[in-house]
Specification:
Radius of gyration: 11 Å
Helix content: 10-25%
Strand content: 35-45%
Number of domains: 1
Order of helices and strands: EEEHEE
Number of helices: 1
Distance between the termini: 15 Å
Number of strands: 5
Largest sheet: 3 strands, antiparallel
Shape: globular
Length: 69
């Protein structure tokens, strides 16, 4: 089974900037993905504030299928 969301663009400091939903084929910016997570459209992900920037992260669990990479 393919990962639900993949990172498609990273910054020079490895911050994930753009994402791709592998089920719906939607491309999203970081802010769009944050918004979608806040709307409960991605239950396996949550938001962390890292260096004052809202950052999407996968929920910790035993599987790697939902990890962002």
């Amino acid at each position: 089974m393919a990962k639900r969301v993949s990172t498609t663009v990273e910054s020079e400091t490895w911050r994930n900037l753009k994402f791709h939903d592998n089920y719906s084929w939607n491309d999203m910016t970081r802010l769009q993905f944050v918004s979608q997570i806040n709307q409960w459209n991605y239950s396996n992900y949550h938001i962390r504030v890292i260096n004052w920037i809202k950052t999407p992260v996968s929920n910790p669990d035993a599987t790697i299928n939902n990890n962002l990479d």
